Amino acid sequence: GAIAVVEGVGDHGCEYMTGGVVVVLGGTGRNFAAGMSGGVAYVLDEEGDFARRCNMAMVELQPVPEEDDMLEKLHHHGGDLMHKGMVDVSGDMTRHDEERLYQLISSHLHYTGSVRAKEILDHWADYRPKFRKVMPVEYRRSLEDMERMKLDSGESVP
Fold first, then answer.
1. What's CA 17's distance to the chain center, in Å?
2. 10 Å Cβ neighbour count for 47?
3. Which of 5, 90, 92, 148 could tie 23 with a disulfide, CB 3.0–4.6 Å?
4. CA-to-CA distance for 79 and 72, rounded, in angstroms?
5. How far apart are the C-alpha atoms of 107 and 102, rounded to whole Å?
6. Separation CA 132–CA 41 (nearest Å)
7. What angle do CA 35, 22, 77 make, to 5 degrees?
8. pLDDT in tens, 8-53
């Protein structure tokens, strides 16, 4: 259940990951996500070659879709979506990727003064499409099944 924002990883990043969220703002070594059964990773794929270094046995790569209300949220919060620790990692990890990613990078900038994070946030429209969401296939299916069960039982889904 840990949350980590890093500016690069070597070989075997997120190996045997079972939960939590990892954001990689730089390069990765080979065999990323080997044995990853839970959690989510967001990897900045500037060169478009991350899939070659990712172990695809248990995971799939997805884009981070643009969210229609992100500009409104940024404007409403004065350009800062940090929310000081309000990133939802216990809820639906199949949605709200752009906001979650932006918040995590904002927190990284706040706590570290990272030049890399500032560059990404300052040019968000250019960088967001370069992120890849790494999610274990079975983990995604189980989350989707739980959401379906909630809907079928009449529970409200946020």
1. 14
2. 9
3. 5
4. 9
5. 9
6. 8
7. 155
8. 999 999 999 999 999 999 999 999 999 999 999 999 999 999 999 9
| Residue 2 and residue 89 in contact, taking contact as beta carbons nearer than 8 Å | no
Q: What is the largest CA-CA distance in the chain?
A: 47
From the DSSP assignment, how many helices (H) and strands (E) are in the chain?
A: 6, 5
Tokens of 48: 């478009």
Question: Of 87, 132, 125, whose CA–CA distance to 106 is shortest?
Answer: 87
pTM for this predicted structure = 0.83
Order across the sheet with 38-44: list the strands: 3-6, 18-24, 38-44, 131-136, 59-63
Specify burial of residue 59 (Cβ count, 10 A radius: 0-12, 13-18, 19+): buried
Helix, strand, coil tally for the chain in percent (to 5): 35, 20, 45
Which residue reads 């990078």 in tokens? 105
Length of the chain: 158
Question: Which residues are CB-contacts of 150 (< 8 A; sequence separation ≥ 6)?
Answer: 157
